[in-house]
């Protein structure tokens, strides 16, 4: 082979090597591009770690019931009674003071004259329903209505005249002293004072 033919053969071999290298790089670029497109089409999901809560689990604690009204937490007043025929009627006004409390039932009534004390008859007024529980927030009021005979059956004024009334709160709530009217409206016949249950005002 002459010198010219050897040069041509070497050039042909070099061209073939360059073509093969170029084809290999193109294939590699296409493979890399396909992997990139695949990763873009199907992104890897992110994982979120839950943050523990500081709040306690389970239901909230139940609220304690309101206490019953007691002598140290209520104010009891009795405005001037009114006379009607031979009877007298009056209203007990019970006001909650420092905290919420409940009343259920009837007051107990104790008449006082000097050192003498005697309980009166507590009776349900005819036709009333069983007493309901009354919830009194501070400064709210409840009422009980009293009635007694002040003139005897023969028309004479009764001689029992107490000077004070002790109002007993239900369920051993204690006694609260209340003034008792003087004069004929303060006379009691038969040692009986009828009272209604406590009612909301």
From TrEMBL:
Q: In the record, which residues are listed under signal peptide?
A: 1-22
Q: Where is the composition biased (Low complexity)?
A: 43-56
> What keywords sit in the KW lines?
Signal
Q: Where is the DUF4232 domain?
A: 69-198
Query: Which residue ranges are recorded for the region named Disordered?
Result: 23-84
Superkingdom field: Bacteria
- Read off the InterPro entries from this record: DUF4232
The name on file for this protein is DUF4232 domain-containing protein
| Native species | Cryptosporangium phraense
